[in-house]
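Figure-free illustration: sequence to structure, shown twice.
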Amino acid sequence: MLDFAVSSLDGPVAIRYPRGSMNGSINNSDEEIVLGKGFIAEEGSDITIAAAGKMVSTAIKVRDILKKENIDSEVLNLRFIKPFDKELILKSVNKTKALVMIDEAPVYGSYTMNICNIIPKNVDVLLKTLPDEFIKQGSVEELLKENKLDADSIAADIIKWRKK
């Protein structure tokens, strides 16, 4: 993504660097990187889970947990948060009728609010973001778990949400 930003774009670019490091790759797509376009990281039919950056690997872990509960999740790697891939998101949520947005930012500073504005009214939405408050010091893993943004907590919330 950094190479794409430096070599393919002519104007200013903002790159979001979350705390911590990322193990492994979330770019399991052979598709060329195109500004504003994401891709389906994992196919599914029951719910759509959308994320960007390192939270995509969390979304894939959530998908694996939900499989054990017979919930088939489609995971979207948004790649870009502005502009975001409206077509990709709408195609997926029109199929699943349920969207879970995962972002490690407070909801009002998050790209999730922009995406919620385009979601059809007949789609159920669950936002998994940080609370709108100061976050104390700690390791990224500790803080995500404490704020219920780790894979186990997200999966548990989705299971409760789907049973309503």
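We now fold a second protein in the same way, so the two outputs can be compared directly.
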Amino acid sequence: MARNTQVAADHNAPLVTQILARHVATHPGYLAGGWSAAVDHEAHRTFMNWLGCAVGAAHHEAADAALAAVQMLQPAPQASVLGRKEKVDMASAALVNGITSHTFDFDDTHLKTIIHPAGPVASAVLALAEQLGASGRDVIDALVLGIDVSCRVGNAMYPEHYDRGWHITGSTGTLGAAAACARLLKLDTQKTAMALGIAASQPVGMREQFGTMTKPFHPGAAARAGLMSALLAQHGYTASPKALEAPRGMMQTVSTKNDWNEITSELGQRFEISFNSYKPFACGIVIHPSIDACAQLRAQGVTPAQVERIELKVHSLVLELTGKKEPVDGLQAKFSVYHGCAAGLTFGRAAEEEFSDEVVNRADMVALRRKVVATVDDSIDEASADVTAVLTDGRRVHVFVEHAIGSLQNPMTDAMLEAKFKGMSDAVLGASQTAALIEACWAVGGTADIRALTALARP
């Protein structure tokens, strides 16, 4: 018996699958004047930041487990696992590199949607490009257009889609990865639409997994799914030509909010990669203002020994996402604003080392976390924090952070990104090879064969 269901659907949605496919397949690219030098420089910043994150986590236990699993498939060595000697098939490389690029929670962030766009897109593109021997120019062009697809779809659905529990990096990243790989394969509009359609049936990731290894699995799985979608489309595999926008297509299934104008407005003129940001702290982006504030307290001479309590006022979303008071390991601490405050005040920073299991469980860190008293004040923006250190001598030292370091209003400089890269890569590749890899990242748009760069990214 057929069910009588009520579907609140938009039956007059624009044909966004076709619109995005045409955008990806026919856009002229940078060398033909398709976007500005500033946009292209941001693409290089995005690529370098992503690569450093992937190399830095190359020997994390999550990477070991993922690599052991894909090697059971006995894959042909087509593409590099960044930061390691092993090579695997390109789909597995996309998976593993996507995992490592997000393991430290140190990757890029499109702040409007809190998508981490490079993880799925760059991981898929680089694996395919290495197998093809594609040029660095083709890689950067594909990265710009793939990120445009994932973030525009994210713009259309955020925040309702995210609030439902979807990890938006994975769910939209599959589409971005498919679009980028379709561009790299030079698929026409019809086949690019099929790649997007196949990818639309594979949204990846639930927020329940935050604080576990499965969170970084999401961008890796999205990269692999997007790559496979493009390869299937290349060989004639078909999908609905309205897979994104149809009443029972992806977007209307996973979100009741669909602002189609966010996809079509200034398409080909405004590029979402222009609004990318980079993390100075290796944790959830909503913790950054609190860490920044506590680091400023430390710079003013406040020490943990002086603190009676830390009064923290933040938007409700901060405690919803990062309210773990008693994290027991590094992965959980990345979702603890309490640990973020303790790290900022103790170390003046919060790189991956400050989220190690050892540091998280240190007695002084546990004690300082317990002195953080967090309250909700929704008059404070999600990207801000109000912090007061109440000292044992009765003094109160106050810091308000409106825009944390790393935000669009207070961005990391190129030099800061290089220093961050070195902090992750030196221990994996050595200082001299890291320096050469950074130079190669800045020059990737002019590289004839991307394999010159991937060779530098392996020990």
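Summary for the second example: The mean pLDDT is 96.
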